[in-house]
Design brief:
It contains 8 helices and 7 strands. It is α+β, with helices and mostly antiparallel strands. The protein has a 5-stranded mixed beta sheet with strand order 2-3-1-6-7, sandwiched between helices. A two-stranded antiparallel sheet has the order 4-5. The longest helix has 44 residues, at 67-110.
């Protein structure tokens, strides 16, 4: 019977192919014939299932499993499948929690908890990744002027508020592809994919933004300024060498009266 209907199907498909090349009306006729053959197959299968069910019922106690037991088996199988499904969902839930924990760990290990910008560890990794790929590349090293006085006068809680304010202002002042990190204490670094002259423009924008802003703290509004030093990567330079030159430029800005931008080599 199966072979018979398979043959019908094959012939119908063959005729359908010819019909599409010939005429749309013939194609429709063949489609109708194919549909009738398919419906006939459904009827035959339904009748075969009914016949098989009657044979099983007729076996009664001689058959290894009664109809009731078949129902019980079906119920048990459904319960088993539900357990398997539940176990799979539990496994996916555990995997999702583990992935979430890993993401939190990764996030906390690369982000400065106080300010929300990249931390020193992430900065070092970024410099290693970028130093060989982006020429020109410059580092802006900056320091909040007289920050120790803020801590001594208002306490470290207010000092933390000032640090958060400083990070927000700098983040708004830099370009979208510049990289900001807290280097330590009140010292921050911006990595610019730019020449030292272009980085100097970014640094001056940062300086002006800080000078115009006021940190809103529990002790009231506090006005701050910043000093900035810039150095550019040269061929063969390591990140450590460039940071050292930027730090020297920063030291020059501090000694020159603070609230200034100084470039390496000037």
């Amino acid at each position: 019977m199966t072979i018979f209907f398979a043959g019908i199907g094959a012939v119908a498909l063959f005729l359908l192919g010819l019909a599409f090349r010939a005429s749309p009306s013939i194609a429709i006729l063949v489609q109708i014939l194919w549909l009738l053959a398919f419906l006939t197959l459904i009827v035959v299968v339904f009748m075969w299932i009914r016949s098989l069910r009657k044979q099983i019922q007729g076996l009664g106690g001689n058959f290894p499993l009664s109809i009731k037991e078949f129902t019980n088996v079906e119920s048990d199988l459904k319960a088993l499948f539900q357990r398997i499904k539940y176990m799979e969902l539990e496994k996916w839930d555990q995997a999702a929690k583990q992935a979430g924990d890993s993401l939190v760990l990764m996030f906390s290990s690369t982000i400065d908890e106080l300010t929300g910008v990249a931390n020193r560890r992430r900065l070092e990794a970024y410099l290693t990744e970028t130093a060989d790929k982006s020429i020109p590349l410059s580092i802006i090293m900056m320091d909040i002027d007289y920050f120790k006085k803020v801590n001594d006068t208002y306490g470290h809680g207010v000092g933390d508020e000032v640090l958060r304010h400083f990070a927000r202002v700098v983040q708004k002042a830099i370009r979208p592809d510049d990289f900001l990190a807290r280097y330590g204490g009140e010292e921050f670094i911006v990595v610019c994919k730019a020449s030292i002259e272009q980085a100097a423009q970014v640094a001056e924008r940062i300086r002006k933004s800080i000078e115009k802003s006021q940190a809103k703290t529990a002790a009231g509004e506090i006005k701050i300024t910043a000093s900035l030093g810039i150095a550019e990567f040269r061929e063969g330079d390591t990140p450590g060498i460039v940071k050292e030159r930027a730090d020297q430029a920063l030291y020059k800005a501090k000694n020159g009266g603070r609230n200034k931008v100084e470039k390496d080599g000037d």
